[in-house]
Amino acid sequence: MVQAILNAAEDDVPALIRQIRTCESLDDVADSIARQEQGLLEEDEGYEESAYTTSALPAFETELSGKMGELRLENGSVRFLGGTSNLIYLDPTVEGDDGLNGLETYQQQDDPLLSWTTVTTETEVVVHLINMYFTWHYPYFTTLSKSLFYRDFLLGKPPGTPKRTVYCSSLLVNAMLALGCHFTSSPAGCADPNDQTTKGDHFFAEAKRLIVENDEYEKPKLTTIQALCLMSVREAGCGREAKGWVYSGMSFRMAQDMGLNLDSGGMTNSKETMDEGEIDARRVTFWGCFLFDKCWSNYLGRLPQLPTSNITVPRYDVFPDEDADIWSPYTDTGIGQLHSQASRTRTVALQLSNLCEISSDLLIFFYHPQHLEKSVGRSQELKKLSELQTRLEAWRKDLPRELEAKEGQLPNVLLMQYVTC
Prior knowledge:
Layout: H1 2-7, H2 13-22, H3 26-37, H4 59-65, E1 69-74, E2 77-82, H5 123-136, H6 146-153, H7 170-180, H8 201-213, H9 222-237, H10 241-257, H11 276-300, H12 320-323, E3 326-327, E4 330-331, E5 334-335, E6 341-342, H13 345-367, H14 369-373, H15 378-397, H16 411-420
Antiparallel strand pairs: 1-2, 3-6, 4-5
Helix pairs in contact: 5-7, 7-8, 7-9, 9-10, 9-11, 10-11, 11-13, 13-15, 13-16
């Protein structure tokens, strides 16, 4: 409405002001202005007296006022473009992007589980390592929709270009397999069966090859962001922090390019829409990146790359049926029944994201380069410490009873409790 007042002809301003002051809903006035600018209102639906229109404005100014930044679908590829980018004036329907969104599905492939990797020809190895990943890594770093991943994973790699958003890729599967190798003593988990220090190296090498061969940098996808996050933490676990830091940075940049940090309610292209599953997957992926970012920041003593000030996307929902899935300690000898219990994966992940927000504020205040060079003062530091302490105590007080530390508790819950000690 402010933009409309600034751009309106002088004679039209009083009518617009009167409309704002006498309306029952400011939202209705704003919607009416937006429809007028888009030429969707009939001539007799204008404001009282001299209605506000943009017809007298230069075409460029009218177009510019509605282009302050947008989150939009471009043939299935979701991107965020800010108002300073000339790319927002390009037709988003221009061909050239992979059409990844639609209702079409594909049939299950022969040997679907082996279609995702060329490293092994044994289905049992793939199943074992994927189970290891979901048992021992996924609960700590929840970065994807498990149900949507399995939906596509069990169908196998789609032939050609899929006509809908996919939640599994060869890159992601090989990254998962590389991580799964670190929880097994099987020779199949090593690039060199006689050398335990080569765990996961063969699957990781395949993931790196796919990044280059498929130009994964060029067109960001959810699965690419997820895979890069996993590759970053795997490299850190192998003592290659510099490489891991680069992979994490790539994933965070891609996440922002796809606008995962923004509420998807800001989607402006009405020709294509996202279903609830994709919206949920985007949210899980972003808050997973948020966790990875804070872990890296604490690990290396660096400022967060995903500050809370740039985030408008809500937290994801907790699905009771998913959190009720049984978690059991899975090893090379099979599934152990001792300590089997509800996984509560999303519940725990949301609690970790709350801790990450507190951690982010702590890092920015105490480890910002400007603060290190010039002290902010002891009184301010004590005040900030008191505030952080209060927030941590409030977090612990609000923690559900089922997430309290106890004998036989879920490993990720115990780690969460240890972090706050």
